[in-house]
Amino acid sequence: AQSVTQLGSHVSVSEGALVLLRCNYSSSVPPYLFWYVQYPNQGLQLLLKYTSAATLVKGINGFEAEFKKSETSFHLTKPSAHMSDAAEYFCAVRELGGSQGNLIFGKGTKLSVKP
Amino acid sequence: DVKVTQSSRYLVKRTGEKVFLECVQDMDHENMFWYRQDPGLGLRLIYFSYDVKMKEKGDIPEGYSVSREKKERFSLILESASTNQTSMYLCASSQSRGSYNEQFFGPGTRLTVL
After folding, report:
1. Are B6 and B22 in contact (CB under 8 A)?
2. Residue B43: DSSP 8-state
3. Which of A30, B32, B76, B77 sits most deeply, having the most CB atoms within 10 A of its CB?
């Protein structure tokens, strides 16, 4: 069965520091992968998606993620954290089979940014 | 832009009440989903629908039902609310064909059952 693992339920960085949020997936075929962000008391917003066109994917707000098949990883990075990046981040993989495209979500990583 | 709206941002109900959570999307998406979100548990799929009048159970359907009479509207029903259904409820929609199935989310309804 497919699964998504996000390492670290909480990550804290200083403003201006590198942000690295880890995501590993299990899938027997090349997957579609997504990163979502959730600000407090809001719904999820799509940050970026991997659809096999390019292994390095750029998203909104300066975030990017690199698909590494050999490591089954899709880690999210941002060179310089901003206070406004404080939020919860979810990695997801599209479930195999069917046309309705269910997503399997990781449990989320809460990012704190210290001034 | 896709817009998914939910009928209430905050809702307080009493144990045993029947609760309706409404979700509407304006992009003619075939697929619609209901999740609940709890700290440390991430998003858990309650029900989903890929067509009008169609519904499928997700991972945690017990205590819930759904209705999809029109393509743009997907309702979640708590037949008899209980305190363990206090949670954040998120609705999402996605396109079936010609897309990568990314889901678009509403703002969420924070339900408290007393």
Report:
1. yes
2. E
3. B32
